[in-house]
Design a protein that fits this description.
Blueprint lengths: L6 H24 L21 H21 L5 H19 L9 H20 L13 H23 L4 H50 L4
Helix pairs in contact: 1-2, 1-6, 2-3, 3-4, 4-5, 4-6, 5-6
Length: 219
């Protein structure tokens, strides 16, 4: 397994914090006129929104975090890292193509859909190493979290269609997508530490054996 640097824990761990902080802070600027249960996150970053600059900054920071994490997660398969990096680029594009103050936007909607899809499939694409791989890079948990994200996306579309709790659904699925890279990073670092510990233990045993051999009786 390839070494994963510890700074990946910082880049991946900051992603959900920045996302939640962004939508919370932007909603505070919007005041009671904004309903987080029914309105989307994109509305907070739309043209003319009072919290526009906070949500835009959060999107940019989130994209940068995903790009850094994709670069550092060397234990993951290349296809998964590319998909995660693509999700980061999509977050940057969302900031550069904000939703209009009213109505829809083909460009914004396309970027959001592409970003969601890439972040939903990257866990499966990142599977690498079989049973010897870190837990979060094994097939079963990766399929499970991808299915969970897909279900969350379907929930969001249903709520949008019925004009219900779209805001809640979007926040749940985007939180899962933002936190999973951190779960993978922790899994990789812990696996690396365990492997290094076993290697150190074998080295100590071998050194002790050599010493005993040198000090033992000679014929």
């Amino acid at each position: 397994m390839r070494h994963v640097p510890r700074w990946v824990l910082l880049s991946s761990g900051c992603a959900p914090v920045l996302l939640i902080g962004g939508w919370t802070g932007a909603a505070l600027f919007e005041g009671p006129a904004y309903d987080p249960a029914t309105e989307t996150i994109s509305a907070l970053g739309s043209y003319g929104a009072d919290g526009f600059w906070i949500m835009t900054t959060a999107f940019l920071a989130l994209g940068a975090c995903h790009l850094l994490t994709a670069w550092g997660l060397r234990a993951a398969a290349t296809a998964g890292r590319l998909a995660l990096g693509g999700g980061g680029l999509a977050a940057l594009a969302v900031a550069l193509l904000p939703a209009p103050s009213s109505g829809g936007s083909l460009g914004h909607g396309t970027v959001v859909a592409v970003g969601f899809t890439l972040l939903a499939v990257w866990p499966v694409l990142a599977v690498h190493g079989g049973a010897a791989a870190p837990w979060a890079l094994r097939l079963a948990p990766s399929i499970g979290v991808t299915v969970l994200m897909a279900a969350g996306g379907a929930w969001f579309l249903i709520e949008m269609h019925r004009q219900g709790g779209a805001g809640v659904a979007e926040r749940v699925v985007t939180f899962v997508q933002s936190v999973w890279p951190f779960v993978v990073a922790v899994s990789c670092v812990r696996r690396s530490q365990a492997r290094d510990g076993r290697a150190l233990g074998r080295g100590d045993d071998a050194s002790a054996g050599d010493t005993a051999g040198r000090l033992g009786p000679r014929d």
